[in-house]
Amino acid sequence: MTHPAAIETALGKELGEELDRIRADIIAARGTDDARYIRTVIATQRSLEAGGRAALAVSLFPPAWAAGTAMLSVAKILENMELGHNILHGQWDWMGDPAIHSATWEWDFLTPAEAWKHTHNHLHHTWTNVVDRDRDLGYVVFRMSGDQRWRPRHLAQPLYNFVLAPLFEWGIALYDLEPDAVAAGRKSWRSLAADLTGFLTKATRQLAKDYVLFPLLAGPSALPCLLGNLTANTVRNLWSHTIIFCGHFPGDVQTFTEEHIDGETRGQWYLRQIQGSANIEGGPLFHVLSGNLGHQIEHHAFPDLPSNRYAEIAPRVRELCEKYGIPYVTGPLWRQYGSTWGRILRFAVPGK
């Protein structure tokens, strides 16, 4: 691990200044093409959802069920990854469109947008991979660093991961309630009660939409419609779990202690984002379906820049890493997935 003091001595302010220039270049260049991109993705997602819902309404016919389930699965993936995640980061607030704004967007996910923005945008992106500060480092359940205290329950974390993957939106919703913060005295019971009310309201609406309203509208196709909705949600959960874990937990991704961030400069913050993330290689369609989080390094360095710009930024960031001798962790999905499982298994047992 490169200690921040060492990187400060070696690089001074240069890394931060060069990455700031990349950010400034994109801010100056964003405009009509970017707005057209996000509106095209929204139109595509809504068309896929409408087509999927319509096909599932007559899903007693197996081809209609397969087509409807496939379209709805892709629609939910797009909404969750390229739309919800990125819009809630404020990536499109600069457009001034109230319909595509982090303050107004509510996504097709169990956890309310406001709760997620607190745990993800504020806590995770501020304290990326800092043990005892970044709750996303293992989501409280997993041990992902030798600096985390081992407990006997960690022996079962491979099983936890199997269970979490198809139920990912439930896991995130419960995580966003921060029950561990209540137990530690960092969050009041009153705040938990308010958050729980928000979660139950949102979850009731989501469950009623997918498992009551649309199946009832399908009439004779109610049961296959319900199963199609369940399948689409499961596919979306499996995909988002895979992309998020492979962007954060491959074996070469570094973790940090609070000592490492004492007096952290802008350049050191950038360094931590780069070393605490991993990219996933793939083509344009893969990157759209992953919310462009295959460029996780660039996303962590510039979380509020338009996601369609990450592919443009990535070569410049990689060149800087090569220039300054900073590891740039990247690889195909299969390799990052295997490496992530290796990390889960390695830290399930005691020792560093």
Automatic annotation (TrEMBL):
Stored CDD domains: Delta6-FADS-like (cd03506)
InterPro entries reported for this sequence: FA_desaturase_dom, Fatty_acid_desaturase
A Pfam family the protein falls into: FA_desaturase
Chain ranges of the Fatty acid desaturase domain: 64-330
Domain of life (superkingdom): Bacteria
Protein known as: Acyl-CoA desaturase
Native source organism of the sequence: Streptomyces flavofungini
